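Re: weekly structure request thread

Next one in the queue (327 aa):
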Amino acid sequence: MATAVQTSSEPRTPSPRVKLLVASALGALFVVGGIAVAAYLVPQVWVKAVTPVVAPIAPFVDVALRLVAQGAAVAAIVWAGTLLAGSNPPRGIRGGIFLIVSAVIATFFIARTIGLQIEEVSAGAAITVAVAGGLLGLTYRGLTSTSGERWMQTIEEQGWLSTFSYKRTQGLRVRRLTMLGLLLIGWSGVYTIIAHESLGGGDWKISIPFTGAPRAAITVLSDINYSVPVLLAVLTFWVSWRAVNIPAFADFLIATEAEMNKVSWSSRKRLLQDTVVVLVTVVILTAFLLLVDLFWGWLLSQKFIHVLPPRTTPTGQIDTPLGPKNW
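Done, posted below.
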């Protein structure tokens, strides 16, 4: 007896985990391309087209305008990325993009460090490529696992990569003051870096192994004495703003302001009266303790008690304590 089996012609749809990974990989490719445009392409075009005209007249204006152009490029890239992601992106895609970009950057620097150490070895290039491939393979395996999906979603839910404002109308005073305190701390550090010229000057370049002698170099940042403080200032602002919009911390600040609103504050007149009372009390207690200290110091330094060290006489001689032989 034969049994007919009907084959299904419907294509298999990829799992949500694979969809999330593919979307995150495409987003990471877009982010890396945007970083390359803002950090490398815009400065190169600017140096060739604008710097020869503006730099001889005002070097600082040339650098400032170039940083503005780079900021505009970053804003345009973020806007384009928001449009591409759509109004309902997959849950965890921001966290996936962050993890993939971080893994690629870490892989590049680890492989570069190893390549610089074994550059003279005949199979050094192959070993470096194998190390980079192994690290990327581990990254792929980790991100395709259940834990990888959970990491992506957890990072996104923490809110550090989101522009969402949590309960924007509540706890405004405490949240603004907290953000102001964080900005003062961070921007004070940025000012210290600028004032002490800790970064020096020039461009930040990294050499690439196995590219001959001299090695080829990639410009990561131009004019680090200006670009790095600007990046740190922007990063400080972002971290300060996101910190007061994280749900757990924001709820704490909102509850703090609610409790502060319940405090009954004294009037100006009552505050002055209480201040006078406290000051007078402190003066009276100070005088009383001074008198007590002087009295006990005098009493315990007498010969018949002999507890404190002997006191000097007005002539500068030391009084001989009354010992047993003198009794």
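The radius of gyration is 35 Å. The longest helix spans residues 16-49.
Next request, please.
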